[in-house]
Amino acid sequence: AQTVTQSQPEMSVQEAETVTLSCTYDTSESDYYLFWYKQPPSRQMILVIRQEAYKQQNATENRFSVNFQKAAKSFSLKISDSQLGDAAMYFCACGAGSYQLTFGKGTKLSVIP
Amino acid sequence: DTGVSQDPRHKITKRGQNVTFRCDPISEHNRLYWYRQTLGQGPEFLTYFQNEAQLEKSRLLSDRFSAERPKGSFSTLEIQRTEQGDSAMYLCASSGGAGDIQYFGAGTRLSVL
User: Fold this and answer.
1) What is d(CA B103, CA B25) in angstroms, rounded to the nearest whole number?
2) Is the pLDDT of residue B28 over 90?
3) Environment class of residue B105 by beta-carbon count within 10 Å: exposed (0-12), middle (13-18) or buried (19+)?
4) B74 lies within 8 A of chain A by CB
5) Number of CB atoms found within 10 A of residue A4's CB
6) Least CB–CB distance from A101: residue in B45, B106, B107
7) Average pLDDT over residues A51-74
8) Selection from A87, A79, A70 nearest residue A10 by Cα
9) Cross-chain CB nearest to B33 (options A43, A100, A105)
10) CB of B88 within 8 A of CB of B38?
11) pLDDT digits 0-9 by tens, A73-95
12) CB B19 within 8 A of CB B78
């Protein structure tokens, strides 16, 4: 079984600035994947970024990057040059075994113009 | 490819009634997942299919819940004798294989009065 903890219920960032969302996880699996999903208000969840646990290199997707600290079981998301469209709920998730995902409770990100 | 589609988007029902939701996954995906999301929480895993076989069920899936995926294509989730506690967003996701990205539908929001 996995557990995922997001300790920041809400965050805010000024447009064009950088923000980091925190996530810690726990799993007994040696082979697992970590994900950040974005859920805009009343819209469907979309993948932001994916990290394979066996890869040491941090994943990057344009303005989004992660800081994956395997020993500390930490998986934070950094959003650079924040845009108004980045405002959403962000969920951290862990998948292992059958690859069902275990999600955290989410962080609501507000972007201030 | 139109992505994962779910029907209906909203369902209002009276306590004690039966409801059925449908999910059409991305056509080439062999894995299909159902999750439940309540207000202020991340999605929680309910069950998953590989092709037509239901391989895993969460303890959240009481006897009143049943899911099918005939012919390994679309899936249905039925809730019998609905209770107010069943009010939630029911999300469907599909993926091409273990560890692959799960693509989510827009969800069906159930309100039990």
Assistant:
1) 9
2) no
3) buried
4) no
5) 23
6) B45
7) 94
8) A87
9) A100
10) yes
11) 999 999 999 999 999 999 999 99
12) yes
